[in-house]
Amino acid sequence: MKENRAGKVLLELIMIVLALLFLFPLYITFVNGFKTYNEVLTSTIGLPKVVQFQNFSVVWKQINFPGVLMNSLIITVLSVAGILLISSAAAYQLVRRPGAISNAIFLLILSALVIPFQTLMVPLVKVARDFGLIDSIFGIIVMYWGFGLPMAVFLYHGFIKTVPRELEEAAQIDGSGVIGVYIRILLPLLKPITSTIAILHSLWIWNDFLLPRIVLSSSQNQTIPLASAVYFGQYTNEWHLGMAALTMAILPIIAFFLFMQRYIIAGITSGAVKG
Amino acid sequence: MPTRRLQQNLIYILFVAPAVFVFALIVLLPFLRAIIFSFQDWNGISTVIRWVGLDNYRMMWKDDAFYRSFAFTLKYVIVTTILVNVVGLALALALNTALKTKNILRTAFFLPYVIGSIIIGFIWQFIITQLFADIGRATQWTLFMKNWLSLPDYAFWSLVLVTIWHSSGYYMVIYLAALQGVPKDLLEAASIDGAGVMQQFRSVVLPLIRPAMTINLFLALSNGFKSFDLNFALTKGGPFGTTESLALHIYLDAFTKNLFTYASAKAVVFFVVLATITLVQVSVMKRSEVES
To answer: What sections of the protein cross the membrane (chain B) (predicted)?
Structure first.
């Protein structure tokens, strides 16, 4: 028994060391954002001798941080809200009115789950140009609706099948229309799966780089991942500003994660298990 | 009665049409377009698009850069699929014991995953080029005195290392959920019957977490094949194109070399390969889940 306890303490110590090693790159990013350029070159590990807050104000202005933060927020929120609305509405009718048409639509949307984004991206640029969706915040939001839809419809479809019909029928007898039943009865029942879908899609859209990279070009449309790439081009090595920019880029998502941790981990687990 | 029927159909259209419309515009149309493009010749700008039959596919057959990218991607997928699952499962097993700091540890291991992979790539670009050089100067270890990103083998393992650091926590969380579903009394029964820790793991735990393994292998395979951000941020496909993933290869062809239609043909091949491999993996593992 004693041996067992010693083993447990040892395991705990090993895991703590490992966890610190995992967090070490974030520490490096953080401290170097507060150093001067020369200090970064001479010592990367140590704390800054004099804390350089001006790195952050320089980056704040150079990449127009409030603007890109706002763009990222608007794109993520409206994309996710649209995905939730469009997919839950479609899945609701596809489940409740089964038949050849519903089946065909569901299978068609489902089959897109195996199509990688990279197969679509080349012609997407052409389609987006033809439909006036290129280099526009609204345009990229519509694209996220399309790319987020298959997974969301699939998860909603599976969930709605387990919701008993009787509740909706009772409400209908009480005089609610289909739209009323959807809003007042069904949407509240869908909350668990809605939060799973919202979390999965928020993380993906917030962090996405490739789609914004190919469809958003003008400077007023930049998102956080696009803007932070500015300091890591081929001919730049302003590490101190780069690290300040990365620190600013990761703080919002880390704060979000720490507050919502329970929901995020639960959402990711159940999303993966059902997917 | 016909009006009620009509009303129901109108509501059906109202609910389903937005999804069908957006899906058709953003997914279906580009997908069909990709297939059509793959039989055409167009640079993305000019007004004429020519039909060229199988020319793009024939060209691919002799394209060394494409083969190199394919070979890199396969090697990267195999290595990372194995390692993220081994590391993820090991972390999950350790955290599944009654450690005091369990929750904080779980947070720490999972944290990198919520950060976007492009930003992770930039963080590690700094660490590998600056911090490692610092460590090399201080310790004189030859391992750290080389510039990892400019040597093909080191660049490959840098990508693997960063991938593990970034996503093991994700696989860990899924394994952890499965491990928590393993009934304690089953393990007790096995240990009373004289099964050692290793044997308990092999004959009780492993079969019970098979579904999680199917999912994690699927996710690791498909994420590995689609890898783009890390290659873009860390190595730009270099040195000498040795770490150019298929996704990056297609991107560079289409958007820096204006080979729109040729890139589309590669994208179609990419789709066929990825769809085949993932569907085979899932069906094989699902079958073995039922048997065990």
So the answer is: 12-36, 76-95, 107-127, 154-178, 259-280
Cβ–Cβ below 8 Å for B107 and A105: no
Q: Which CATH superfamily is domain B55-291 in?
A: MetI-like (1.10.3720.10)
ipTM score of the complex?
0.91
* Residue of A103, A122, A230, A253 to mutate, interface with B, max B Cβ within 10 Å: A122
Asked if residue A14 belongs to a domain, the reply is: no
Interface of B with A in 75-134 (CB under 8 A): 94-95, 97-101, 104-112, 114-119, 122-127, 130-131, 134
Please give, rounded to a whole number of angstroms, the shortest distance from the CA of A261 to a CA of chain B. 8
Residue type at A223?
Answer: T
Predicted confidence band at A1 (pLDDT cuts at 50, 70, 90)? very low
Domain ranges for chain B, please list them.
55-291
Helix (H, G, I), strand (E, B) or coil at A1: coil
Q: Which of B20, B101, B267 sits opposite A122 (nearest CB)?
A: B267
Distance CA(B223)–CA(B210), nearest Å, equals 20
CA atoms within 13 A on the CB side of A158: 15
pLDDT of residue A274: 67
Alpha-carbon dihedral sign for residues A252, A256, A258, A264: negative
CATH of the domain at A223: 1.10.3720.10
